[in-house]
Design goal:
The complex is a heterodimer of chains A (113) and B (113). Chain A contains no helices and 11 strands. With 113 residues, chain A is mostly beta strands. Chain A is globular. The termini of chain A are far apart. Chain B is globular and about 40 Å long. Chain B is 0% helix and 55% strand. Chain B contains no helices and 11 strands. The chains are: A mainly beta (113), B mainly beta (113). At the A-B interface, strand 4, strand 5 and strand 10 of A face strand 4, strand 5 and strand 9 of B.
């Protein structure tokens, strides 16, 4: 089925460990983004990309890196995990333009101990 | 930073009741989107409104974009338990880069049978 695929679904890390959250979409969307969702804070933008080779920072980029080598893939790297990065992470994609909404992945629940 | 305020934050009603959820900002948006999120899943797009004063209907859900494109409302008629979920509004910036969506913190709706 067409959509946004995120892996893994759940992950537990120890403080200081690194990992990559995977995101892939098969809808040829130009725009891809990563959000984190925390209770009482809503969805906050971490990084986004408007096309292959182009990335930019969102609202809360510290501690995270991204790259966009292809249209389809947009991995999120945690460099040195901290307990403050415990959250639910969502990847989302859409066509550029005002009329288009996001297609979200089903999320990755990350716990850093 | 453009902010979207959603109200109420929580809403618990009985099946068959009507309700309205509000999304307000002091900023102008190119478009405004509404999403519904169920536990353990990513948000799902319900509607996009683009023109000031626009009204869109999706079965028992009615969405309205304010004339000045600063606010929006979602009205549900005869709510059903299947309407339970987190309702999120998101605005697309009207000036400069139109890539980033700003999300409100959501309204958590519970419809009791």
């Amino acid at each position: 089925n067409a959509g946004v695929t995120q892996t893994p679904k759940f992950q537990v890390l120890k403080t200081g460990q690194s990992m990559t959250l995977q995101c892939a979409q098969d809808m040829n969307h130009e725009y891809m983004s990563w959000y984190r969702q925390d209770p009482g804070m809503g969805l906050r933008l971490i990084h986004y990309s408007v096309g292959a080779g182009i990335t930019d920072q969102g609202e809360v980029p510290n501690g995270y890196n991204v790259s966009r080598s292809t249209t389809e893939d947009f991995p999120l790297r945690l460099l040195s995990a901290a307990p403050s990065q415990t959250s639910v992470y969502f990847c989302a994609s859409r066509y550029l333009g005002t009329d288009y909404g996001y297609t979200f992945g089903s999320g990755t629940r990350l716990t850093v101990v | 930073t453009q902010l979207l305020e959603q109200s109420p934050q929580f809403l618990s009603i009985q099946e068959g009741e009507n309700l309205t959820v509000y999304c307000n900002s002091s900023s102008v948006f190119s478009s405004l989107q509404w999403y519904r999120q169920e536990p353990g899943e990513g948000p799902v797009l319900l509607v996009t409104v683009v023109t000031g004063g626009e009204v869109k209907k999706l079965k028992r859900l009615t969405f309205q974009f304010g004339d000045a494109r600063k606010d929006s409302s979602l009205h549900i008629t005869a709510a059903q338990p299947g309407d339970t979920g987190l309702y999120l509004c998101a605005g697309l910036n009207s000036g400069g880069s139109n890539y980033k969506l700003t999300f409100g913190k959501g309204t958590l709706l519970t419809v009791n049978p």
